[in-house]
Design a protein that fits this description.
- This protein is mostly helical.
- The chain has six helices and four strands; from the N terminus they run ααααββαββα.
- The chain has a two-stranded antiparallel ribbon with strand order 1-2. A two-stranded antiparallel ribbon has the order 3-4.
- α1 (about 1-10) crosses α3 (about 35-60).
């Protein structure tokens, strides 16, 4: 899910510079090469998403500023269907975003978060319970506590080692 992937990119250099941000966007099916204001805006959106998703996972009330930023990004990226009809070809549909490419990217991320936070998957949203990991993830099983098998194994190995140290 796009919103979760963006939040988890905080531990990676995904938005460190325009080139890595463009690469991350392409890997997630989005077109754009954010730079300057667009890159800062994407980083601010990532921070707001993180606050909103963590509030949903813990049952807390999210900051109003994060909610405002998410809604503004979604509203600014309103898309209109457009039609191209070349003289020697078939008609093709495309989406036009009046706010430009940066707004389209932020809007796609915002809509992904809105769908997650208002949909059925919200109840599956968790924060990893492994020491040193605080990644957000969607639990496939209601009892799942860790974002990955690696985190689960680290917890089990630490628990096993602690039992043997007490003897």
């Amino acid at each position: 899910m796009l919103a979760l992937d963006l939040c988890d990119s905080a531990t990676e250099p995904a938005l460190a510079d325009p080139a890595s941000a463009g690469r991350w966007l392409r890997e997630h099916g989005l077109r754009g090469d954010p730079s300057g204001h667009g890159l800062e805006r994407l980083r601010a959106l990532r921070s707001a998403l993180d606050a909103l998703l963590r509030a949903a996972a813990t049952g807390d009330r999210p900051p109003a500023s994060a909610l405002d930023l998410l809604n503004a990004a979604s509203a600014e990226a309103a898309a209109c269907l457009q039609l191209n009809w070349p003289a020697a070809g078939v008609p093709r549909m495309w989406l036009s975003t009046p706010g430009g490419t940066d707004a389209a990217v932020a809007g796609a991320v915002a809509r992904s978060a809105i769908e997650l936070l208002s949909g059925r998957d919200r109840d599956r949203l968790r924060i990893c319970g492994a020491h040193g990991c605080d990644r957000l993830f969607l639990a496939a099983n209601p009892r799942r506590q860790w974002c990955s098998p690696a985190c689960g194994n680290r917890v089990r190995v630490a628990r096993h080692a602690a039992r043997y140290r007490l003897r």
